Amino acid sequence: MDKIRIKNLELFAKHGVFPEENALGQKFLVSADLYTDIRPAGLTDDLNASIDYGMVCHKIKDFLEQHTFRLLETAAEKLAWSLLTEIAGLKKVTLEIQKPWAPVGLPLETVSVRITRGWHTVYIALGSNLGEKETYLRNAVESLNQADGCRVEEVSEFLVTEPYGYTEQDDFLNGCLCLRTLLTPEELLALLHKLEQEAERKREIRWGPRTLDLDIIFYDDLVMDSRDLQIPHGDMQNRDFVLRPLAQIAPYVRHPILKKTVGGMLADLEHSQKI
Q: Which residues form a coiled coil (predicted)?
């Protein structure tokens, strides 16, 4: 990925733990690596095809001068979020905020915080088999699109599927969506659980009926196993109701462990079901 670098932008702001820092202020130096696709601008010589680093410098200066934070960590986090959500074409940013006048009572050159934040591509499976099924799914899509740090990029058709596991229940309506998000996997999982709770989902029977079911299938190429979350979804390759809608919007996305595309996994599953 291409990068535009801003180094040691100097500004005067009021961030710090001590009251006098918030009142009097001090010097800060900010460096930023802006990750984007520079090729269109390089081929056309058109500034509109790139990111205007002069505009970014003023955004950084205005943001840090207009806000006051106790911690450099918070200043960096909030600034990164602001840049990523407001600047078109910015895919990832590395920020370093230096505090050369840090009041530590010892001689030093500077104290700094450095973070990297960016947009992630996530595929989420949706399902419902209680009440107004389509309404539950469409409300979930809209809620995700309106959530801070989230942008729904594409949504599959909603397909009627037979229940999986526990079969003594109504047919499901299933779909998948592609989401761009700044949230971590854990933060996204918490958001999905919140939306399920708002839909009054009850977890009484494993694979049982539910008003709304939201599962993370892929999160970039991440592979993780924790007590609460497994990515990629551990049983997706065996679930027709996941693979069919997912293949509509992401047929060539490759499973980071199985090394098969979504379309390939669907073909394998359909072949095994025929046998």
A: none
Can you give the pLDDT at residue 168? Answer: 60
The pTM of the full predicted model, rounded to 2 decimals, is: 0.92
CA 214 vs. chain centroid, Å, equals 15
Domain ranges of the chain: 2-118, 120-274
Annotated catalytic residue 260 = no
Q: Alpha helices of 133-211 — where are they, by DSSP H?
A: 133-146, 185-198
| Domain 120-274, CATH | 3.30.70.560
Catalytic, out of 61, 92, 99, 133? 99
At 21 the pLDDT is: 92
Q: Which fold has domain 2-118?
A: GTP Cyclohydrolase I, domain 2 (3.30.1130)
3-state secondary structure of 34: strand
